Every structure is written in C-alpha cells, then in structure tokens.
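#struct-pred

JT: dropping the chains for the assembly here, can someone run the whole complex?
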Amino acid sequence: MVERARQPIGRPRDSRVDEAITRAVRELLAEVGYTGLTMDAVAARAGVGKAAIYRRYATKQEMVFAAAIHGETLEVPPDSGSLLGDLTALARVIVGHLSNPAASGTLLSLLGEITTDPALAERFTRTFVEPERAGNAELLERAVRRGELERMPDVDLFHAVFGGAVLSWLFISRHDPHDLPERLARFACAALRSAEPHPPTAERRT
Amino acid sequence: MVERARQPIGRPRDSRVDEAITRAVRELLAEVGYTGLTMDAVAARAGVGKAAIYRRYATKQEMVFAAAIHGETLEVPPDSGSLLGDLTALARVIVGHLSNPAASGTLLSLLGEITTDPALAERFTRTFVEPERAGNAELLERAVRRGELERMPDVDLFHAVFGGAVLSWLFISRHDPHDLPERLARFACAALRSAEPHPPTAERRT
DNA sequence: ATAGTTCCGGAACTTTTCGTATCGGAAAGG
DNA sequence: CCTTTCCGATACGAAAAGTTCCGGAACTAT
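RK: done, full complex below.
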C-alpha cells in the first residue's frame, strides 16, 4: 500500500516538443485566429505528430488556453513615486501585453468561448483575472500609504475600468495606443482623487 | 436600353424566413456560442432549408454578424437633468444590452474574428462603434451646455472607458451588474468634473 | 392562361477538420 | 532483455461547412 513509484517509468517527454507546440500555436493564432487554427497545422509547423499534442492536451480549447497563458503574468510596475506615474506605467504594461497579436487574438477568442463553458470561465478567472486584480490593489495601496488617497478606492470597479478601457480602445475602437497610457492614467487619477461619498455638500466632517 | 425592370420578378422572399433565421441564430448563439453554432442547427431550428440561408448570407460569419446587429442601436437616454443621472442611465442601457446572452456571446465571438479580418472590422466599427461614440458625445455636450463641464472632454477616451468598463465587469471579472451603473457613473462623473489641464496651479486665467 | 423567374424545404454531396488509433522505432527504468 | 512511455507519421471515422440538385410553390409579364 506504500505509494512509492512517483517517478514515471518509460521514455520521458521531450521538452523541446512542448516548446515547439507552444510556439506554433502562438504564431498561428496571430496569423489565422482561433477558428482558423487547425490541429494539423499546429503539428506540421511544430514538426511533431498529432499524438504528441493530444498526449499533452485533451482538446484544442485546452491547448490554446495553455499556450495563451504560458508565463503571461502581468507584473506590477515599480513604485514611481506618484499615483499618476504608477497608473501610466500600469497602462503601458497592459497595452504592451495586449498589443502582442498572438495574446490579443487568443484573449478575445477565449472570451467568446467562456460564455458557454463555465469550467473554462473558472480557470480563466483564477489564472488571469484574480492576479491582475491583486496587482491593481497593491498599486492603489501604495497611493493610500503615500497619502495621495484618503481611503482605499473601489478596487473591483477600478480594475474593470482600467483594463476594460485598454481592451475597448484597442479592439473595439481600434485606436492607436501610443498616447493612451497618459490619457487614461490622467482620467483614472482624477476619478480616484475626488472619490468623496458626497461631493459638494459636506454634511459630515470630523 | 431603358433600365426599367427595377422590381424583381419571381417569387419574393418570405419575410418569415428572415425572422426565423435571425431568431434561431440568436437563440443558438446564447446556447452554444459562436464556434458551437452550426448551419444545420440554424436551418433545423428555423424550420428552413440551408439553401434559404445561403441565398441571404454568403458565409456563417456574415449571417451571425447580421443577426447580431439586427436593430441593436443603443438609444441615447433622455435628459435626466444632470450628468450623473445621464451617465447612470447610459450605463443601465449598456448593461441591459450586454446582459442579453445572445448579444453578449455574439459580440465577444465577433471580436475574436475581427482580429484577423480587416473587412469585418471595418463594418463592425461603422455599425457598432461610431453610433455609440456619437451618442456618448451628445450626452457629454448636454453637460457642457448645462454648465456642469467647462469644456468638451476627451470623447474617445470616455467612450473606451465607459463601454470597456461594462464589458470587463460582465465578461472578464464576471461580477453582478446590479449596482454597476451607479458606481461606474459616479467614477466617470468624478473624472470628467476634474478634467483640468493643470490641476492646482492655475497659470492662465482670462 | 401560360411561360419565365425566383423562392421554398429537403436532401445528397465534397471538402475540411477534430479526435482517435495504429505503426515502427527510440529512450528510459527494472 | 523486457516493459513502459515517448516519438513522428499516417490512416480513419465522425461532424460540420458550404455547394448543388430536386420537386413544388409563388409571383410577374405577356
């Protein structure tokens, strides 16, 4: 009853095959999109057999998801000394990631699939959404500690506004992103600074 | 040589077939999503032959696009008397439209396709994005005329922020939208009101 | 009325793609 | 040496997109 044989026996998997598959998926996603991507094309470009792919991923959906999130953690930008500077840097990080054609095409196609697949939605939330929300919260906490903000803002709302604005700017309006970070950061900064419960009529003042 | 026969001859198209196809597409999009939608399923549910579909739309993409935007013009909410009220109403309209499972699934899947199809992207912009941006501009102009805003804000940025925030809230964060309109309107209103080029140091004053 | 045109639902057909299975061979452990 | 698992290659069945034909119906022009 002692579970001992933890190391697998048999020929081990070739890590170069993993890398070739991931690279092929990303290239093809950028070129032909999610619906245009075929398993045979992935196998051909990666120079592997289809069996090698299905040994790793059960479905095309799973393969694409894995390739899309492979090491794609948005890092929190370093403390710039001001909320406006931090927000500008954050916007630049998001724009940078979403400007990658492979990542953007994958993200949008995945969003379409998510509406009908609760399990995929759950994984997406844990892998993508939660870490980014936590990063945003950290950035806002710095501003509170700095004294730029009196209290902690509505993190959920800020997260939706900031990420959603970049998403909409790039993929719905399809504008040039070159000066978006400055404009968006100024907009968000203004909103956060004047986040008083009741604006002009100061009914309660300690 | 006189071009006279402008009215088509032969059996006219049955408008009930158009309606049945559109309804079937929307129902199926909500149930199985874009990639899960098949032409055979549309034909079966609509109770029509596939030939009737292909007589109207050349491709699946075109059919879905047509069904998605069928009379889906976001109307500008009536003047509520204040910018905050107008923004809350606008957010409610957007949330209402995007909460429809058929419309939301369609929109997201379409976004994924758009990344690899410039022609589709162009049509999407003209049909969806431009009218909504114009509606936002009208709403902001009311606030300027009312005196709530000193000058016209950055409409492109506002449009991306407002729509993008709802999009992200619903489909990326996947939160409950019931109190989003109020929170988002307050956030955006605060940003718009304090949109001064240089905040405290009033260097130029006429 | 009748001929010509276009529509209708239904069904057969071709091509493409997903996912599985099978093959000979290679790389690891027992 | 033997078992297991991997490898690339290929073949296969099921499903689905898109095309095409059918017999019949509806509408226009003559």
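JT: nice. Confidence is low (pLDDT under 50) at residues 1-5, 198-206 of chain B. The first helix of chain B runs from residue 15 to 36.
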